[in-house]
Amino acid sequence: MVxxxxxxxxxxxxxxxxxxxLTSARSSNDAEIATVLARLGGLGFQDLSRxxxxxxxxxxxxxxxxxxxxxxxxxxxxxxxxxxPRLITAAExxxxxxxxxxxxxxxxxxxxxxxxGQKILKDKVVPADLVLGNSNYRPEMEGLAVAYGTYxxxxxxxxIRDQQGQFRVLEDNARTPSGVxxxxxxxxxxxxxxPDLMAxxxxxxxxxxxxxxxxxxxxxxxxxxxxPQVVLLSPGIFNSAFFxxxxxxxxxxVPLVEGRDLVVEDxxxxxxxxxxxxxxxTIYRRxxxxxxxxxxxxxxxxxxxKGLMRAYxxxxxxLANAVGTGVADDKAVYAYMPxxxxxxxxxxxxxxxxxxxxxxxxxxxxxxxxxxxxxVVKPVGESGGYxxxxxxxxxxxxCAEFRIKLRLDPANxxxxxxxxxxxxxxxxxxxxxPRHVDLxxxxxxxxxxxxxxxxxxxxxxxxxxxVVNSSQGGGSKDSWVLGG
Amino acid sequence: xxxxxARSAANLxxxxxxxxxxxxxxxxxxxxxxFARDNxxxxxxxxxxxxxxxxxxxxxxxxxxxxxxASFYLLDADNxxxxxxxxxxxxxxxxxxxxxxxxxxxxxxxxxxxxxxxVTAAELxxxxxxxxxxxxxxxxxxxxxxVEGSLPHDEAWYYYRLGKTLERADQTTRLLDIKYHLLLxxxxxxxxxxxxxQWNALLRAASxxxxxxxxxxxxxxxxxxxxxxxxxxxFPRSISLCVRQIAWMLNQLRSRYHxxxxxxxxxxxxxxxxxxxxxxxxxxxxxGLHEFLDGLQTQFAALTADIRDGFFGGYV
Lengths: 484, 316
Description:
The structure holds two protein chains of two kinds.
Chain A: H1 30-42, H2 45-61, E1 65-69, E2 74-78, E3 81-88, H3 90-114, H4 119-122, H5 128-132, E4 154-161, E5 167-173, H6 180-193, H7 195-198, H8 209-219, E6 230-233, H9 242-252, E7 256-257, E8 262-265, E9 268-273, E10 276-279, E11 282-285, H10 289-292, H11 308-314, E12 318-320, H12 331-334, H13 337-345, E13 357-358, H14 362-370, E14 375-379, E15 389-390, H15 396-408, E16 413-417, E17 423-427, E18 432-440, E19 442-445, E20 449-451, E21 456-460, E22 474-481
Parallel strand pairs in A: 3-22, 6-7, 6-11, 11-12
Antiparallel strand pairs in A: 1-2, 4-5, 4-19, 8-9, 9-10, 13-16, 14-15, 14-16, 17-18, 18-21, 19-20, 21-22
Helix pairs in contact in A: 3-13, 8-9
Chain B: H1 6-35, H2 42-50, H3 54-60, H4 66-74, H5 83-96, H6 103-116, H7 129-150, H8 155-190, H9 196-205, H10 209-216, H11 222-231, H12 239-257, H13 262-278, H14 281-287, H15 289-311
Helix pairs in contact in B: 1-4, 1-5, 1-7, 1-8, 1-9, 2-8, 5-6, 6-7, 8-9, 8-11, 8-12, 8-15, 12-13, 13-15, 14-15
């Protein structure tokens, strides 16, 4: 029924064996999808390309960019933006939202437990050394109470969709997940460049992210007799993600501070204003644990605030995310997440993992070595798509080399079957073609959890590529959650 | 709402200063090219002198000519007083201020700085140079318009405006000092009619040509021009008006935002104001205009230091 609407620009579009986020059969919103398809099909390639160029120029002018520094110069680059939206039906979103909330709940309970009592380790559900030996485990957090038991105030859950259309969690991001600024800015851009495509279609709005985030930051603030002062802590204007920090501070309406703007006196945090020192109650920090307090962590950090951990322990300031959340988004801990969910919530995971083998376990290693050509093998400590082997796409030599690495340090790796990631129509230099996508919904948690409708759709712009990371040729798309 | 982050206050102050500097540079180069041509090219040298750049300039160029001076100020990013260097600095201040200022205010600075990077040496040649300068000036005016329409008149506005106004006062002081003494010998040497076109050019360089005419009609004397740029109580770039505005802004910061740091700076600007309100141009010229303007520049520098120490909490 839906496919009958495909014509014009989309006439030659073929998603092959992959699930397509626009043309595959869905459980709801058929009418809206058909309308979008018909409108897209009716756009000329020239028109689409022209509007795409205008959109990218606007991103550049607005400074929605990341900065690449060379020896002498700085170059502002945009994250490539694909103008064809990714569609999520109302029914799909309801499912995803429930799944994400469940997962975030489990992550927070897990973090609360490992820093207070470590029941899950004593019950041997998760191997103790996996947690306690993890470089992101912070003994400084033991016994420290956080408001509402919330550690991962902002959590990004990376999802992919397999050939059957089943969503699966690929990775949890419980430290400082980034990209939410693109979600909101991409929508604004679409509203400006494609009003005709969006007309009369109900799409869940995304522009109240800042208000929701500020509310959560205020909820977790320590008691104060006035409105709590929230700040956003950034490494500064030279950080490549500075735009996102600007976006978050601007949308919350709070000061964007650097470490040098803050000072700790009598275990309380203050910021330097024109009128002297002013109390700070919640810090949304976009700075890794390692850098936040030279007194406790890296002593050479110029970006942090001396004494911040003292204030944190004294309960006079809230940090978001909490210190030590990195242990929950470790790729090895990920493999235990379904068991963690069952342990704390007595529920099955709503969103399944990708089947994962842990190479630190002998069976996992043996299986991985035997099936290397079929598997994706990832180092547990890396992010950004670095250091991984995509078996089916690797040469014999690459596989042989990787076998050596695996045997030398098996605990550093996990392996997963190669998933045929879903695709969606994407504008290329010659027409519209399928490209693989993932989805990162953003969950904000204070007292309770709220999920921004949709999330960041990253798209692998190179034909056949399944690596969506911006550092490796990835771009982004607007993600529409359809009303229902 | 509490007070502004001290670092943001510094960023605002310098954003205002740098863009005012860029606008002035654009106008001075344009006027020199269009109205102040002369064979000795001493007018081009005076542009270098206004910016006190003799040492840096002659390390790179043998002669102060139209191409060398235009390139030094419009293209040379290594020259800290150049347009590209100032735009770069303004851009960096605006970047740090992004959460605080309107999106259009940021976007315009971002685009202005980016576009200026593609200006080539070819555009500095005679027919296109005035056009290029005009474009620069208009972009600064667009910026000013966006600020006027989108920057709330709260504490932030005062720092932005303080930077802009201080730079303006300082620029007029330098312009008057150099040009007055450059043009004056003409009078005695030739012993004939005043080279009024050169004095008109000076007024144009301060964008005060029409404003001067309105007040003085036909009475064009060196003393009248100097008096106008120093004492006019209504011309936006006159030193007196700038000083009066600075005094008012400091007063507002103290009374409305309870910033005691304003007191020291206020004391200094009150002194300057007192001097300006009691002096006349003739005795100043008699006793030495250069010394007087030099004294003002020293006061402005001290004022900048007071503002920095009082409000910016150690950030420059």
